[in-house]
Write a structure and sequence with these properties.
Pfam families: DUF3846. This protein is α+β, with helices and mostly antiparallel strands. The protein has helices at residues 35-43, 77-88, 128-141, and strands at residues 13-19, 25-31, 48-52, 59-64, 110-116, 119-121.
């Protein structure tokens, strides 16, 4: 493809961030032509659920709708950290008071995507700082970071 050509609709993708139960955080691309099937494949689920994060309307988390029914059900502590951050750190003056014990449990791999005017979009640039923190937590859970004792 030369610099004057553009991607056709079937080639366009939406960029997101996958967070796995094995504590991996990585970029993913999902085809815009069939976003739902792309989410099923990336997450490894037959049904997905959109979790709107109230402190940032430009960010959604997509997870396995039936994850808690799986056996064994593997919690995703990195996704839980990211979701709890967005539930408890408002991006505007609206304060949300949540007890950490009241935060939801997430099971299985999840994908973070953007939301723009009700449509799925690329993950927002503002997610970068939270992603960096999530990568540190993931590395710690994988045993790659040890604390001094």
């Amino acid at each position: 493809m030369n610099e004057n050509q553009t991607e056709g609709p079937a080639e366009q993708t939406i960029r997101g961030v996958l967070v796995t139960v094995t504590h991996q955080v990585r970029d993913v691309e999902i085809p815009t032509a069939d976003t739902l099937s792309g989410l099923y494949e990336v997450i490894g689920a037959e049904m997905v659920e959109k979790v709107s994060l109230p402190c940032d309307p430009a960010l959604d988390m997509w997870c396995d709708e039936e994850g808690l029914l799986a056996w064994p059900a593997f919690r995703n502590p990195v996704a839980e950290y990211i979701a709890s951050y967005w539930f408890t750190h408002p991006t505007d003056d609206q304060a949300i008071a949540l007890d950490p014990e009241d935060l939801p449990i997430y099971v299985g791999d999840v994908v973070f995507l953007g939301s723009r005017s009700g449509e799925i979009a690329d993950v927002p640039e503002g997610f970068a700082s939270v992603r960096q923190a999530a990568e540190v937590i993931a590395a710690s859970l994988r045993g790659e970071i040890r604390t001094a004792s």
